[in-house]
């Protein structure tokens, strides 16, 4: 079973990319492992809302790279034994450390599992507006991505694209940098993501892979997920309704 990690920070477009990838390669037997911190995984609902039938597994209580690593690896082996899909796409939460997740999978040392070079989506606007303040968590996702997709970059000028490409290449010298509208790329390019494409960026051995401080309330209503300098709060809205104009004040 091949494993493709599609990483990236919140809002970078990971789920949209995965949906396009699976739509582009309908002949490939995909399964998807979706990780999100919160009570409801809306991304998993989006992935299931497609013409083809996709097996989507969800883990919403812990992060696959640290607090939920043991559960993730158990689920990984269960998917392998029960379904054994050709490719398992793993979409970690935006607050996951890519190097730690890679290290956990590689640590299994199981011949039936093949970790593909991971892909990281980088939001063009967010990255180049906030890059000077990025924590090691965000930089880790870029440095360990073998393919970096600069999402939402369709409107960039050629000059801006060149500058942004150079900055990403400095952070990840061996990575393939993709700019512009990735949806215009050929099926052969998407198929190439499912092959080895050279070596993996080595994952660092770390007994505390995320260098995080996790605080999870036992009632699981609110989750504060802290990786390094990042502090994220997930809020799930349910039964949302629009008030009738007559009742507006």
Characteristic terms for this protein:
3-stranded antiparallel beta sheet, 11 strands, 8-stranded parallel beta sheet, 31% helix, 249 residues, disordered C terminus, alpha/beta, 8 helices, globular
What does this structure look like?
- The chain has helices at 14-24, 42-48, 69-82, 98-106, 124-130, 136-143, 158-171, 187-192, and strands spanning 2-8, 30-35, 55-59, 87-91, 114-115, 119-123, 147-151, 176-178, 215-216, 223-227, 230-233.
- It is globular, with a radius of gyration of 18 Å.
- Strands 1, 2, 3, 4, 5, 6, 7 and 8 form an eight-stranded parallel β-sheet that branches. Strands 9-10-11 form a three-stranded antiparallel β-sheet, with no helix packed on it.
- 36% of the residues are buried.
- The chain has 249 residues and is of the alpha/beta class.
- State mean pLDDT (0 to 100 scale): 78
Question: Number of DSSP helices?
Answer: 8
Distance between the termini: 58 Å
Which class of secondary structure composition applies to the elements? alpha/beta
Task: Round the Cα radius of gyration to an integer and report it.
Answer: 18 Å
Low-confidence parts lasting 5 or more residues at pLDDT below 50? 204-209, 211-249
Care to count the β-strands? Answer: 11
H/E element sequence: EHEHEHEHEEHHEHEHEEE
Strand content: 15-25%
What's the story with the biggest beta sheet? 8 strands, parallel
Q: Into which percent range does the helicity of residues fall? A: 25-40%
Bulk shape: globular
